[in-house]
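We emphasize that the prediction below concerns an isolated chain of 266 residues; any contacts that depend on oligomerization or on bound cofactors are therefore not represented. The input was used exactly as deposited, without trimming of termini.
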Amino acid sequence: MAMTIGKSMGLFWFYVVRYRRNLVFLNLELAYGHEKTKRERYRIAKDNFIHYGLNLVEFLRLPSFTDQDFKRTINIRDTRSIDRALKKGKGVILILGHYGNWDMAAIAQARAGFDCHIITKKAQQQSVDAFWQGIRKEMGVHFLPNEGSAFKILRLLKKNKIVVMIFDQRMRGKNGIRVNFFNRPAKTMKAVSLIAMKMDSPVIPVFIWREGGIHIYETGPEIPLLHGSTEEDTMRLSSQRYNDVLEAFIRKHPEQWLWIHDRWKL
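Result of the prediction step, given as a token string:
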């Protein structure tokens, strides 16, 4: 019943509310214009809004979830990359995109026994933010604000802790670096490559996607720094590689990514 409600909410958003629907169509055209037909892109867009509805319903149901509910709905398939990275003793940086149910990814990490600290933005509405962060904290997830946490991040890595950074969003100004994403210029955060370069911390990609009513969580292999002739080149080459890894995953499950984000605005 809950999933039927989520699907209906997504379809209502797609057909009636239509908020950011044109942006999704535009982004899909930018990403897949020469690869997929207009009909195929329309289908991805429609499924994408259904995905948002499902995510919302799943999040609202979290406070009532039992241990058995989590065992039934989250399949933690592979975390060996994190285990190997922690043995290096230099902390670990996990990079994650807004694909699948990313809140379920945070919960999966906590349930797998990893002490993760996720860098996150606050919701604009204080009451919404308190509700949102409150549910996450009840699930055993630790968060740091995306602003003013630089020294905390470095201290955590020195203590061989895990820091999770959402890597697929547009980053403007001096904190961003220009790379290609789906063969188009896009600004992405330079913090991951900068910290990895300075701290020698391994970078591990994290993936989560929905198959039916199951959320599958797994990690990819460590992504080594790509060294250039200057630090700026190293950050650019490495950031490009991180984006390439996330893009390859998004291509496998395009309906489960955050196409409502204005990713290619420079």
